[in-house]
Amino acid sequence: MAERPGVGPGPAGSAAVEYRGRFAPSPSGELHFGSLVAAVGSFLDARAAGGRWRVRIEDLDPPRERPGAADAILRTLEILHLHWDGEIVRQSTRGDAYEQALARLEAAGRLRPCRCSRSALAALAENRNRPAGEELFHPGHCLSDAGDPAPGSALRLRVRPGPVDFVDRVQGPGRLDVAATGGDFVLRRRDGLYAYQLAVVIDDAWQEITHVVRGADLLTSTPRQRLLQEALGLPTPTYLHLPLAVDDRGRKLSKSADAPAAARGAPGAVLANVLEFLRQPPPPELAGAGAAEVLGWAVAHWRPEAFAGVLAQPVTARKDTAESRNGNP
Ligand SMILES: [Zn+2]
User: Fold this and answer.
1) Ligand 1 centroid to 142 CA: how many Å?
2) 226: CA distance to ligand 1 center in Å?
3) How many angstroms does the Cα of residue 140 sit away from the middle of ligand 1?
4) What pTM value is reported for the model?
5) Which residues, listed in sequence order, are joined to residue 111 by a DSSP beta bridge?
6) In angstroms, what is the span from residue 185 Cα to ligand 1's centroid?
7) pLDDT tens digits, residue range 149-171?
8) Residue 193 domain flag
9) Would 266 be classed as within a structural domain?
C-alpha cells in the first residue's frame, strides 16, 4: 500500500496511530448520492485502518433544515450497516465552544467585523464568475462603514497573505492562496449563525478526528480550515477527498434532483452502486448480497488509490438499484 503522508508521528514500526474518522451530514434532506459516497468512503477508510468512525450532525442552519431529516439520515446509515461509534454529536449544541474560539481569535486580533452586503460583494469583478454556492471573495478592506462593529456585523477571519499548502492522501499536494482568491472568510454570519468553516474546525479538533474523508467539493475549504487551525493552534488531520458526483454536464448534483432514489433499493445494491462510483466494484459473486456482506468485502479490499486524480465523476452510468436488487450484474 502506498505510504500515507502525515499519518503517523513516528518512524515505521512505532505504535500504530489511532484512527478517528467521521461523517458529518447536514440535515437539509435525506441522504443524496454525494453524501452516501462520503458516508461509505469515510466508513471504509476508517474500518480498513481498524479505526473509529463517528457521526456528527451539522445542524447549524435551522432555516435550511428539514424536520425529521437527521433521523432519516441515521436510519439510512443503520439500514446500510454503516454503524457508528460513540454518541452522535449535534453542532446545534456546540455554540459555547464556537463562542470561545471566536473570543480567542478576537483577543489575537484575527477577527474582522464586516457589514458588507452580499449584493455589494457579488458585484465585485472577482465574484462575477464564482460558482453558485462558493463563498464570495472579500477584498482587503470592507466595502461599507468599516469601523462600525454594530449588531448585524459578520465576523471574518483575517487571513494571512501567501499560499497555504495542504496534502491529500490520494490526490497529492495542493496549494491555494486564500488571501488572494477568497480573502477573509466568514466565521459567524450577519444573522448570528456560525459558519461551517468555524464549526468543522472546532469540532474536528474537539473530537480528536485524525482523518477527514469527504467530497472533493470541499477541496477549497481545506486550505481555509488549515488557516483556522493555524490561527487557533489546533492540529491538522489528514485529508482524503472523494470524487464529486456530477451530472453528465459536470455540474454538482443538486440534492433535490438526486436525493429521491439514492438510498432506495436493496441495501447491498445501494452500497454496490457507491463502490462502483468509487472504482472498486464488488465481484459478480456478490450480486444480490446483503449490506453486511458487501461492506465486509469492501473493507477488506478498500483501495482509495483507485480514484487518484478523479475529482469529479458523472453518476449517470450508475445502475438502477431496482434492477440490481434482482441480482442483475
Ligand atoms: Zn466586509
Assistant:
1) 4
2) 22
3) 8
4) 0.88
5) 157
6) 9
7) 567 899 999 999 999 999 999 99
8) no
9) yes
